[in-house]
Structures are given as structure tokens and as C-alpha cells.
Amino acid sequence: MEFPLHFDKCRKCGSADRVGETVANELKAKGKLPAEMIYGTRVGQSLFAHPITPSLTVTVLITVYDLCAKCGLEYPTHILRQEVPVTSGLGKTGGRPPGFSGPATFK
Ligand SMILES: [Zn+2]
Hints:
Layout: E1 5-6, H1 19-29, E2 38-39, E3 42-48, E4 57-67, E5 74-85, E6 99-100
Antiparallel strand pairs: 1-5, 2-6, 3-4, 4-5
Bound molecules: zinc ion (ZN).
Zinc ion is lined by residues 10, 12-13, 15, 68, 70-71, 73.
């Protein structure tokens, strides 16, 4: 499977308009958010690590969700796979804002 994955349209109604993205674009236009960052209404983080065997890195899937502006359905818009060093403090954060910066190819 090739990452990142992108879903451009609502699977229910087919609309490409999204609530979080629209708000983020307004703020980006005013210079209040960095243009290169991706925003949605929610960001999920799934950790894939062996429960016993130590490893230097763990695989993390970061999923950006947004709400369809037409029918309200929440759906994933971007899914990014990352290898994260175990020493990065992962899991110590008390939640992350609904946006993140990916590599240059991640749009
Ligand atoms: Zn929809």
C-alpha cells in the first residue's frame, strides 16, 4: 500500500467541500496558519508497536478527519505513515491540535 492516502470527496454525497479545511483556508489566507500544514476537524494517531520486543522505532499512522460541509459526514482526508523514534516522547503529549506538518510530498 502506498502512503500517504488521500480521500478528496465525501463517500456519502460526493461533495469535496469540508468544514475544517474551509476554516483553515480562511485563516491561512490571513496568515494566521502556516500554508503548508494540513488541517481537519480531528487528527487520529494509531501506534503499531510490539508489546514485548523493544524497537528503536515504531510505526505510526496519522489520520486527518474532516466534516463534509454538505451532509456533515466525518471521513478521513489524509492518512500518513511514519516511522517514529521511540525516544521522541510519543505518548507523553496530552493530545495534538487538528493539524500537522508532513513531508513536502504530502498534500
Ligand atoms: Zn457529504
